[in-house]
Amino acid sequence: MTRWTAFLVPAVVACLAAPALATTPPSKLGHPVAPVANPKPETPASKLTPKPPVALPAKKPSAKSGSSKSGSAKSGANKSKSGKPAMTMAIFLDRLMLAESGGRDDARNPRSTALGPYQFIEATFINVARRYFTKEVEKLDDAKLLAFRTNRAFARRVAEAYTRDNAAYLAAAGLKPTFPNLRLAFLLGAGGAIQVLRAKPQTRLIALLSPGVIRANPFMARLTAKGLIARAARDIETTPTNTASVAPGTVPPSRRSRRARPSIRVRCNLARPSCRRWLALQKSKRKKRPGRRTRVSRR
């Protein structure tokens, strides 16, 4: 009895203590545990209110940032209000070439003698090239010189010289040599440009320009003075109000003499009596204009 009692008593005590240990919190067993808060139901995203943004303290402008602003101001000075680069002679000549020929060196107008990237007619190219590039072309006859119209580099130099001539001519006539006006002068010649710029805006070009100019440029037949001025500005990607201009020089002597002595262009055969009678009639008409001499040119 005593032996069995000694065995069973500890076993019974252990069984009675086991449930108590199972239900005892861990903190009571010597292990610290952080209290767990009761979970809250989730709030729908539509009812969440965003937190206001945190305002960061404003940075003081440093010397480096100031220099970058001044640098951007300098770069902006080279641009027009539209954001495009300000017009220069180099940009003008680039756009002029695209307007005249689409950048093709062999472009030809079947209605006139115009040829090359800048579409120079024969008379204009010979005149300008021999006046401004005398040493370079003095050994060339007219036929060989005219072949240089398809030489882009040389034709560009002639185009610039001709443009500066036109600037002087426009300024002498009291008109501003702006790039839109210079485009117009390159298209019509300085004399034709002056007529168009001085005309009333709604005047039709067929009343201002010679039939030969209209034949060489059929699109002009349906335009007014205002329309052609606007088109000339679009050709160089600007507007008629663009005031960028070229500093005018002096009118070349050959231009002055040409103005003083208007030519009579003879397109008929002078060996025929009818042609000679026509020429005599034209000369008599010119004589009625005092102070002006005439010269005869055959084309």
Explain this structure.
- By secondary structure, the chain is an all-alpha fold.
- The chain has a domain at 89-247 and 264-290: Lysozyme (Orthogonal Bundle), CATH 1.10.530.10.
- It is built from 13 helices and two strands.
- The protein has helices at residues 2-22, 63-77, 89-101, 122-132, 134-137, 142-146, 152-172, 179-188, 190-198, 211-216, 225-235, 253-260, 273-287, and strands at residues 263-266, 295-298.
- Strands 1-2 form a two-stranded parallel ribbon.
- Strand 1 (263-266), helix 13 (273-287) and strand 2 (295-298) form a beta-alpha-beta unit.
- Helix 7 packs across helix 8 (179-188), helix 7 (152-172) crosses helix 9 and helix 8 (179-188) packs across helix 9.
- Mean pLDDT is 78; it is low at 61-77 and 255-260.
Write the layout of secondary structure elements.
Elements: H1 2-22, H2 63-77, H3 89-101, H4 122-132, H5 134-137, H6 142-146, H7 152-172, H8 179-188, H9 190-198, H10 211-216, H11 225-235, H12 253-260, E1 263-266, H13 273-287, E2 295-298
Helix pairs in contact: 7-8, 7-9, 8-9, 8-11
